[in-house]
Amino acid sequence: MKFIIGLLIGGTIGYILGTRDGRERFDEIVTRLQDLVGEEVVQQMTDFLDQRTADVRKAAAQGLDTAADVIEQRTAGNGSVTAD
To answer: How open is the CA angle 56-57-61, to the nearest 5 degrees?
Structure first.
């Protein structure tokens, strides 16, 4: 995912720097992006995705806690981890 985001950012920067329109085109892109971000549909989607990622983060944290508990139980007393 980081690669795709980096690719998009790099492509955008390259386009802006390479365009003949320069600052005017950059300002147009920024204005359109701000308009897009301000739309209610985009805000709703952002809120939805924020909630979904919060759910995933919570589930991942619970899974890590469970795994840590299992490892702690298996290593209690003998100091080594064994595979079942």
So the answer is: 115
- Is the pLDDT at 27 greater than 80? The verdict is yes
Q: Note the pLDDT tens digit of each residue in 70-82.
A: 999 988 866 555 5
Range of the domain at 67: 39-74
User: What total of structural domains would you count in the chain?
Assistant: 1
Q: Are 36 and 42 a contacting pair, CB within 8 Å?
A: yes
Cα separation, 19 vs 66, in Å, equals 53
Residue 23, in any domain of the structure? no
Token pair for 22: 């320069």
Distance CA 68, CA 80 (A): 14
* DSSP annotation of 39: S
In the chain, which ranges are E strands?
none
